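The instructor's notes for this session suggest beginning with a concrete chain rather than abstract definitions. Hand out the sequence below and ask the class to guess, before any prediction is shown, which regions might be ordered.
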Amino acid sequence: MTSCTAPAARYRPGRIGDHDIPAYADEEGVDPRRRTETFAEVELEVDNWRWSGTTFRLRSGKALGADRKEVAVRFRSVPHLPFGHTGEIVPNVLRFELEPEGLTLDLTGIGAHTQELAPLSLTAHLEPPSLPAYGRLLLDILTGDPALSIRGDEAEEAWRVLEPVLATWEKNLVPLEEYPAGSDGPPPRASTWRHRDAQLHDPVPSTTET
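After discussion, reveal the predicted structure:
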């Protein structure tokens, strides 16, 4: 597995709901000289034939405008539109929403006219689990069920992949960007995936995305 970093950033003053939020560097107990990030994004790729061309993007941030936890699977766009259809080709997206749990499938379907395309959303809201995520994990550990735990070699491999990323940030080889508190994070970069996501749905989630 190889990895490459996208932006690292920290929030500047802003507003979330009815509250004014100071810049992270001005928060009590924070040393601004440490350049600690409050937003990070990492792209991962698995170097084998099965996952060739598939990118895993992990994204997490603090002081964002919406508290959102979700896993989004973006399907590749079709290379062309058949049968004379017109409209923008937007990739389908399957979203697994966490806390509260839900499922959304964003599709492109036939619009009001037979040769026009229109966005479609199929949504299901799931009954809340009896235990929160970490409660379920701790219960399984106590009962000897390792299904939700990782092995030691998995943890070592995760650190092997992420340590170069952390070293890059520590050496200031990636510029530390800024974003206003209450926003959706740093502004979109040149990569097209975030632009497509902004067109298809609300801003991308504030936590990890794989």
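Then share the key points. Strands lie at 2-12, 14-16, 19-21, 39-45, 55-61, 70-74, 93-97, 102-110, 117-125, 176-180. The mean pLDDT is 81.
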